[in-house]
Amino acid sequence: MASILKLADPSELAGTWLATLNAAQDPDRLPVGASNECSIDLRPDQTFGAGAPCIAAWLGEQVTGWFPEPDGIAITGKEGSKVLFFSRQHEGLYQGMLQSGQRITFKRAGH
Question: How far apart are CA 5 and CA 2, in angstroms?
């Protein structure tokens, strides 16, 4: 039986999220000066508040915005193109994969 995915309104995803880079077992794989955990603020206007530099350090490029997709959240770079996709695991939990193979977990703060 097919399921229909609903596109979330940006206001449903806006707020504070905890992002964790799964490099805890190998801290040498973290970019210089980067932490493996940071708080990210997704604004209702689909821009970033606090935390954008943290994600940018993991990606190795500037991030400027985000938008909902039926099955997740897309992060955009300075050219407006999608640079990272977070797949919805369940309510309040998303996961993305860097080109290096490292996983980022994106969890709604307070859950």
Answer: 10
